[in-house]
Input
Amino acid sequence: MHDQVIDAAGTSCPACEPADPLLRVPLPSVADLGTVAEARAAIDGLDAALAVLLERRAEVAALVQRLKPVGGFAGRNPDRERAIVDAMAERAPSLGRDRLARIMNAVIEAGLDAAER
Ligand SMILES: O=C(O)C(=O)C[C@]1(C(=O)O)C=C[C@@H](O)C=C1
Output
């Protein structure tokens, strides 16, 4: 297991202060995983981080819905969604653009749905 700093190059976050909490995730090295139990433990750690990221993403996406002239499902923006998938595809080459598009469609729709409740 080793830590890897993810450099969100090309993104900027004016609302992120140096003192803000950082999500630090031990990124498992697949070569170091030899058993199902070890691999499942690694998946559990990654899923825990994913859940935190998905929760915060949904909160920020809900804010966007309140700020946009037309929010919610009615205000979906395919160009923006394509740009999101394109940027992510560069970081996840083994998943590829089409799979990522399906994943992000589900993430975005879940966020819009949660924002309406
Ligand atoms: O960026 C926006 O306009 C949003 O509403 C946020 C968001 C997202 O969850 O990333 C949600 C719906 C849009 O279709 C595009 C992106």
The chain has one domain: 2-116. The longest strand covers residues 2-3.
